[in-house]
UniProtKB/TrEMBL annotation, chain A:
Keywords: Membrane, Transmembrane, Transmembrane helix. One of its GO terms (molecular function) is ubiquinone binding. This is NADH-quinone oxidoreductase subunit M. It is a multi-pass membrane protein. It comes from Parageobacillus caldoxylosilyticus NBRC 107762. GO terms for cellular component: plasma membrane. It is found in: Cell membrane; Membrane. The chain crosses the membrane at residues 6-24, 36-55, 93-114, 126-150, 176-196, 229-251, 263-282, 294-315, 321-341, 353-371, 391-416, 428-449, 469-492. Residues 140-436 form the NADH:quinone oxidoreductase/Mrp antiporter transmembrane domain. The gene is nuoM. GO terms for biological process: ATP synthesis coupled electron transport; electron transport coupled proton transport. Belongs to the complex I subunit 4 family. Its main location: membrane.
Automatic annotation (TrEMBL), chain B:
One of its GO terms (cellular component) is plasma membrane. NDH-1 shuttles electrons from NADH, via FMN and iron-sulfur (Fe-S) centers, to quinones in the respiratory chain. Couples the redox reaction to proton translocation (for every two electrons transferred, four hydrogen ions are translocated across the cytoplasmic membrane), and thus conserves the redox energy in a proton gradient. InterPro entries: NADH_UbQ/plastoQ_OxRdtase_su6 (IPR001457), Nuo/plastoQ_OxRdtase_6_NuoJ (IPR042106). It is an enzyme of class 7 (translocase). GO terms for molecular function: NADH dehydrogenase (ubiquinone) activity; oxidoreductase activity; quinone binding. It is a multi-pass membrane protein. The keyword Transcription regulation does not apply. Belongs to the complex I subunit 6 family. It comes from Saccharococcus caldoxylosilyticus. The chain crosses the membrane at residues 6-25, 32-49, 55-76, 96-116, 143-163. It catalyses: a quinone + NADH + 5 H(+)(in) = a quinol + NAD(+) + 4 H(+)(out). This is NADH-quinone oxidoreductase subunit J.
TrEMBL record, chain C:
It comes from the Bacteria. NDH-1 is composed of 14 different subunits. Subunits NuoA, H, J, K, L, M, N constitute the membrane sector of the complex. It catalyses: a quinone + NADH + 5 H(+)(in) = a quinol + NAD(+) + 4 H(+)(out). This is NADH-quinone oxidoreductase subunit K. It comes from Parageobacillus caldoxylosilyticus NBRC 107762. One of its GO terms (biological process) is ATP synthesis coupled electron transport. The gene is nuoK.
UniProtKB/TrEMBL annotation, chain D:
It comes from Parageobacillus caldoxylosilyticus NBRC 107762. Residues 130-419 form the NADH:quinone oxidoreductase/Mrp antiporter transmembrane domain. Pfam families: Proton_antipo_M, Proton_antipo_N. This is NADH-quinone oxidoreductase subunit L. Residues 64-114 form the NADH-Ubiquinone oxidoreductase (complex I) chain 5 N-terminal domain. The chain crosses the membrane at residues 6-23, 30-50, 70-99, 111-131, 137-156, 176-194, 206-224, 245-269, 275-296, 303-329, 335-352, 373-392, 407-431, 451-472, 492-512, 592-612.
């Protein structure tokens, strides 16, 4: 694979589908859906190909791309590369895993989009645009490009929620936009301050500039310790809104409940992970000392997230709400892992990002199947589903088990590694956090068992079990969840190099 | 305490009093008259600063022309205000905010100027002051001088056109 | 060394400027607003003349500038008053808060 | 054979997947798949056991997960204990598989039942083979899953749903203890492997407090799984599952996992006096506590369930008293006779379609096979001489006495008395006396059900002879590699044990067999005891009122905080923005002065900032 343009090709390959879709009449539902689905395949195949090559020992550095793009000034006292924004893409094992996850979930979400009821054409075009944004975020080599791709996800998502969502969709879309816009604004401040003071936005260069004493002399303006602290806090808030961390989580609930389930698959599966990705990439990558300084509080926040989400999920009436709060809760585990600040913790956080991506997508896939048949996801109005829809009910139960961290499924691996990390550094916090493990079991079982077990509540509905075409994505996800759970080494291996890099940055 | 200092204190006191009175009086004419005190004392200050010519111009133009013009302006407009009608605009908050801003601005500038001292003194300014001005004006500053005259002309014409009554027959725009 | 230093003049000018500014921003009568602006210009003139005597490069230039300022101020007063008359004819008021055509 | 021991759990796993995939079409033939697979497992386990009898421990590992430089491994080990447990588990599982074919006959989810059984057997065998704590934990949870699924097998019943949920959550609470203990151990020792942990416990790498702390934390896991007080409440409720499941999971194998865990980590426990004492006290207390509840229950399965809890407490007591062998020995014998009892109970339920012993009676003649088989089980559990329970129980009593736990010894003796009493109460109520049920056509169970019972009955008698003070302590010698300490027990202990069990039987006979003693002889004299026991000491209610309500209260509180405080702050910010926006638009009022004022205020602000900060914020 001679990949000078490989990454660009990978990121922008959904564009082809968007263009092709433009020529299809909007009334042709089947063609549009098929084409939309097929358009998600090229990035999937490309990313799987890259993943496979990587596992076989291909060096990802060869994939980096670099083109001059925007030059702001031409002052004689500045060197050639200062204030130069390049279009640069590069990936490491961590980004590659996220890219594979993204393209995979996009394909599955496209398959789940068969339940979309209107304006398929616009839907799929936005959907593909969203994919470009998501892929780009993970491949961006500098912060400005990262930001651009990040914003690129914001717009399609706004319309996807606002137009194809549920009853209260507009409100959800606006709160999505507002919260994330706020986060983006804060992020932009951080990026610009760094850019103005260092003259670069490239991640590696920035890293060098911020930490290497020789390179620090080349700074345009000094970055005091205090300023770095504030920059880190701002960064943390910016990605904390995306993740979301507890006081900033309300938007996410609305999106979870109102957006079409296929979009929530992507939202919970990938978009939330951008927050985690950013925290790891920029938070740990650029501000390791500050991160260390706040590590305790990050871990505490993680535990708060975990318990807060769990307790709230316990009293929700609506299954989607349960899942939404469970996402809040699970994001706590990412923070717990990051707060541990050791290899196990960071690995746990990344595992959790991937694993929650799979599990959340899995559960929302089931929600879409369920909602299609019962028109409700209110827990009390369901019940005894195992009788009428044994396969769906079984999968729901499997999803719940994965979510509550049953060994043998991916959720356990991430939970275990994250807690393993935290127990080394902050055993007391971790011990409090383990209460979350119990609460997760409590709320998940309460919700799922009330839906699937017990006497059948809905004899009126002729619920049919999932069809083969619906079952395929469900089983793909289930197999992935289980295989990561059974043999986590296959996920740990590609991440190893990236995590080692981070640990070096942290100073061992 | 030198005589110059005493004179300065007196003049400054009058100038500020005039300004403060202007802010606090209620009748428009009184306000203008209050300002005349300020203008005249500023002229006195000019004398102290060895600028006799400017002082004279100040008296002529401000205390004379501008004040008279303003008084005409007042006379030509309606001013039979009822008793107790407010003389200022805006509510309390706006005034307070403006006052605070003005005060803060004053403090900031004060901090900048209160120790300012270049240590030099133009000792020869008072010698043939008018002559010096004339020399500079007609040699070095000829073009600005001419432009100033153009400005005056333009202002004259503009003022006349603005103040002229609209033609009865002019089409309404 | 004179007993009256530069900074004292500057402070006086500052006080007058502030008075003028406050008046210009809060007075309701347009004539007074105009005259307050004159006061601010005067304050500036004091600075010019003071710098002419005590500045870094003492000389006649400062006084000349003061003269120019007075000229322009006079012109401004004339035009301002003329504009006031025109407005008054249209609106029958001299109250500045009743003139809000900028809103439209 | 030992190097292929890892295949043992794979047979039932195959059965699980195979039956999930195609079981629907196979209907009841799927039973043969399950039976065949467990038979293979059993035969292979037997081969492994014989191999191990002559050989030494075998261990194989493979990298499972790397965390930095730490490599976590997965693999299997064949130690004496593992090999022994492997056989016990696969045998009981095999027998239960056969039995279920008759018991579950006609159920529409027949194949699913077998699939779940396969999953459970896989997990249990995997648990037994685990060479390290992490893997143990993994399978530990998986057996929990199997148990959960099987308890909830009749998912349409509200009680089954509640019981399944309760079982999962209660054991989960214990598991968290296990989880914490395991991770703490890992950071102290640097490995999850049992060998490394024991080495560290021996050479003092682990501090005494750490040993105690981790041992007790892990013991909490065992408490949850083995239904020890205070996490015992799920086990009786778990009887909502089909009876073969109760026999396999909630009597013979899974609930014994807690005992197994403590046994597997025995060197760790031995290193801490406090931990040992905790285990012994919890075990002893649970034994007595559950036995008293068992005295008054009227549901046949619940009586057996409480007796299970009580017997598990016995095993814990044995381990806590330092007698590893006695614990495992009783585990084994208990597995056989309790499985037998449950299967026999299942056979009874199958015949009369009720679980209430007050509605049975007079079945001795109607069920000529089940009756005697049940009696054998009852005699074994009561500790009547010559039956297996007698030997294992005796071993425990000796251990408690020689270890110096006098109080616990007497508790154990009293428990033995209660056990004999309530078991025979059960027996007399079910099989003796008059017919009290409405079922007309009571018939003996089919051969497919009685056959496994007969096998178990033989074992319930014979299993005792692998380790007796009379004929030799084969099991003990083998489990401890010949280092078994032959303690000379005072002979009166055996006499006392026999006496109390006979006394218990006699009393039960007086009350329920001969009925010469009124049943409310005691409860009428000591008020409230009956209702206290009948309501299981109100433990469930206590949990509901404390933990349950607290969790709900916290949740509701947080949900109000979420809805009003967090959302309120967001709204407040939104309102602030809105207000300032409308304020801003109010400033656009067309008045020059307003514009001037705003401009100037802004200017002043900038000037002030510049003057006081120098332009750098």
């Amino acid at each position: 694979m001679n990949g000078t343009y490989f990454l660009s090709l990978l990121i922008f390959s959904p564009l082809l589908g968007m263009i092709l879709l433009a020529f299809v009449p909007k009334t042709q539902e089947r063609t549009v859906k098929l084409l939309g689905f097929l358009s998600t395949l090229p990035p999937l195949l490309l990313s799987l190909f890259a993943f496979w090559q990587y596992l076989r020992g291909y060096r990802l550095e060869h994939l980096a791309e670099k083109h001059d793009w925007v030059r702001f000034t031409d002052f004689p006292f500045l060197t050639e590369s200062t204030y130069l924004v390049r279009y640069e893409l590069n990936i490491d094992g961590f980004s590659l895993v996220m890219i594979v996850l993204t393209s995979l979930l996009t394909t599955l979400a496209a398959a789940a989009s068969i339940h979309i009821k209107k304006e398929w054409k616009g839907y799929f075009q936005l959907f593909l645009l969203l994919e470009i944004g998501m892929l780009g975020v993970f491949a961006a080599g500098n912060m400005i490009l990262f930001f651009i791709f990040l914003e690129m996800t914001l717009v399609p998502m706004f319309f996807l929620v606002g137009k194809w969502g549920g009853f209260d969709r507009e409100r959800a879309a606006y709160s999505y936009l507002l919260y994330n816009g706020l986060g983006s604004a804060i992020l932009l401040i951080v990026i610009l301050v760094l850019f103005a003071r260092t003259g670069t936005s490239n991640l590696e260069l920035l890293n060098e500039m911020l930490h290497n004493p020789v390179a620090q002399a080349q700074l345009i303006a000094p970055l005091s310790e205090e300023l770095r602290l504030w920059l880190f806090v701002a960064l943390f808030i910016a990605f904390g809104i995306k993740l979301p961390i507890v006081p900033f989580h309300r938007w996410m609930l609305r999106v979870h409940v109102e957006a079409p389930p296929s979009i929530v698959m992507l939202h919970a599966g990938v978009l939330l992970k951008i927050g985690a990705y950013g925290l790891i990439r920029f938070g740990i990558g650029l501000f390791p000392d500050q991160f260390r300084h706040f590590a305790f509080w990050i871990a505490v926040l993680g535990v708060i997230n975990l318990l807060y989400g769990a307790f709230l999920a316990f009293v929700q009436e609506e299954f989607k709400m349960v899942l939404a709060y469970s996402s809040v809760s699970h994001m706590g585990i990412i923070l717990i892992g990051l707060g541990a600040l050791n290899e196990a913790g960071i690995q746990g956080a990344i595992f959790q990002a991937v694993s929650h991506g799979l599990i959340a997508a899995f559960l929302f896939l089931l929600v879409s199947i369920l909602y299609e048949r019962t028109s409700t996801t209110t827990i009390d109005r369901l019940g005894g589903l195992a009788k009428v829809m044994p396969l769906t009910a079984g999968c729901l139960l499997a999803g719940a088990m994965a979510s509550l961290g049953l060994p043998g499924m991916s959720g356990f691996i991430s939970e275990f590694t994250a807690f393993l990390g935290l127990f080394q550094t902050k055993p007391v916090v971790a011990a409090i956090g383990t209460l979350g493990i119990i609460m997760t079991a409590v709320y998940m079982l309460r919700a799922v068992l009330n839906m699937t077990f017990g006497p059948s509540m809905r004899n009126d509905v002729q619920a049919l079990d999932m069809s083969t075409i619906e079952a395929i994505p469900v089983f793909i996800l289930l197999v992935l969840i289980v295989s990561v759970g059974v043999y986590p080494y296959m996920l740990a291996k590609p991440l190893q190099a990236a995590i080692e890099m981070m640990m070096n940055g942290l100073g061992g | 305490m030198s005589g110059e200092y005493l004179a300065f204190l007196a003049l400054a006191l009058v100038a500020i009093t005039g300004g403060v009175l202007m802010l606090n009086l209620t009748k428009v004419v009184h306000m203008v008259i209050a300002l005349v005190f300020t203008f005249i004392s500023i002229a006195g200050l000019y004398v102290l600063l060895s600028a006799e010519f400017v002082a004279v111009v100040q008296v002529l133009i401000y205390s004379g022309a501008v004040t008279i013009m303003m008084l005409f302006g007042i006379m030509l407009t309606r001013h039979q205000e009822e008793e107790g009608e407010k003389t200022t605009t805006g509510g309390f908050w706006r005034k307070a905010l403006t006052a605070i801003a003005v005060f803060a601005f004053g403090i900031a500038v004060y901090l900048g100027v209160y120790r300012l001292d270049f240590g030099e003194e133009g000792a020869r300014l008072h010698e043939n002051n008018t002559e010096q001005i004339g020399m500079a004006l007609y040699s070095h500053y000829t073009i600005p001088f001419e432009i100033a005259s153009v400005i005056l002309l333009v202002a004259l014409v503009g003022a006349i056109i603005l103040a002229k009554k609209d033609d009865e027959g002019a089409p309404k725009s | 060394m004179s007993s009256v230093s530069l900074s004292v003049y500057l402070v006086l000018a500052l006080i007058l400027f502030c008075i003028g500014l406050y008046g210009a921003l809060t007075k309701r009568n347009t004539v007074i607003v105009l005259i307050c602006i004159e006061l601010m210009l005067n304050a500036v003139n004091i600075n010019l003349v003071a710098f002419a005597k005590y500045g870094a490069h003492p000389g006649i230039t400062g006084q000349i500038f003061a003269l120019f300022t007075i000229t322009v101020a006079a012109a401004e007063a004339a035009v301002g008053l003329a504009a006031l008359m025109a407005l008054y004819r249209n609106r029958k008021t001299v109250h500045i808060d009743e003139i809000d055509s900028l809103k439209h | 054979m030992m190097e292929i021991a890892w295949i043992v759990p794979l047979f039932p796993l195959f059965s699980f997947f195979f039956l999930l995939a195609v079981g629907k079409k196979m209907k009841e033939t799927s039973a043969y798949v399950g039976i065949l697979m467990t038979l293979l497992s059993f035969l292979l386990s037997l081969a492994v056991l014989f191999d191990r009898l002559g050989g030494s421990t075998y261990k194989a590992e493979h990298v499972w997960l790397t965390i930095g430089s730490v490599k976590l491994t997965a693999g299997f080990a064949v130690t004496a204990l593992n090999a022994w447990m492997l056989v016990v588990v696969s045998l009981v599982s095999f027998l239960v598989h056969i039995y279920s074919k008759g018991y579950m006959h006609g159920d529409e989810r027949f194949s699913v039942f077998y699939a779940y059984l396969g999953l459970f057997t896989f997990a249990m065998l995997g648990l037994v083979l685990s060479p390290n704590l992490l893997q143990t934990y993994v399978f530990w949870e998986l057996v929990g899953l199997g148990s959960f699924l099987l308890i909830g097998f009749y998912f349409y019943k509200e009680e089954a749903k509640a019981a399944a949920k309760k079982a999962f959550i209660m054991t989960r609470i214990g598991d968290v203890g296990f989880f914490i203990g395991m991770i703490l151990l890992f950071w102290q020792v640097g490995s999850f492997a049992y060998d490394d942990i024991f080495r560290a416990a021996e050479d003092g790498t682990l501090s005494q407090t750490m040993v105690t702390l981790t041992a007790i934390l892990i013991f909490i896991g065992a408490v949850g799984k083995s239904g020890q007080f205070p996490l015992h409440t799920w086990l009786p409720d778990a009887m909502e599952g089909p009876t073969p499941v109760s026999a396999l999971i909630h009597a013979a194998t899974m609930v014994a996992a807690g005992v197994y865990l403590v046994a597997a980590l025995f060197p760790l426990y031995e290193a801490s006096e406090t931990a040992m004492l905790t285990v012994a006290v919890v075990g002893g207390f649970t034994a007595l506590f559950a036995a008293t509840i068992g005295l008054v229950q009227t549901d046949i399965k619940r009586v057996l369930a409480y007796s299970t809890v009580s017997q598990l407490g016995y095993m814990m007591l044995a381990l806590g008293s330092g007698s590893y062998v006695a614990g495992i020995f009783h585990l084994t014998t208990h597995a056989f006779f309790k499985a037998l009892l449950f299967l026999a109970a299942g056979s009874v339920i199958h015949a009369v379609h009720t679980q209430d012993i007050e509605k049975m009676g007079g079945l001795w003649r109607k069920m000529p096979l089940t009756g005697p088989l049940f009696l054998i089980g009852t005699l074994a559990i009561s500790g009547v001489p010559l039956f297996s329970g007698f030997f294992s129980k005796d071993e425990i009593l000796v251990a408690a006495w020689t270890h110096g736990h006098v109080a616990l010894f007497w508790i154990a003796v009293v428990t033995a008395f209660f056990t004999a009493f309530y078991m025979f109460r059960l027996f007399f109520l079910v099989f003796g006396g008059e017919k009290r049920h409405d079922e007309k056509d009571v018939h003996e169970a089919p051969a497919v059900m009685t056959l496994p019972m007969i096998v178990l009955a033989v074992l319930a008698v014979a299993a005792g002879y692998v380790h007796t003070p009379w004929f030799g302590t084969f099991l003990g010698d083998w489990l401890t590699d010949g280092a078994y300490a032959h303690e000379t027990a005072p002979g009166w202990i055996m006499a006392v044990a026999t006496a109390v069990s006979l006394l218990g039987i006699f009393l039960a006979w007086l009350m329920y067999g001969k009925r010469s003693l009124a049943r409310d002889w005691l409860s009428s004299r000591v008020p409230y005891t009956y209702s206290l026991l009948w309501n299981k000491y109100y433990i469930d209610e206590l949990y509901m009122r404390t933990v349950g309500y607290a969790a709900t209260a916290i949740s509701l509180l947080l949900s109000y905080i979420d809805r009003f405080v967090v959302e309120g702050i967001a709204r407040l910010i939104a309102a602030t923005v809105h207000t300032s926006a409308s304020l801003g638009s109010r400033m656009q009022n067309g008045q020059v002065q307003m514009y001037g004022a705003v401009t100037f205020v802004g200017l002043a602000l900038l000037v002030v900032i510049l003057a006081f900060t120098g332009g750098y914020l």
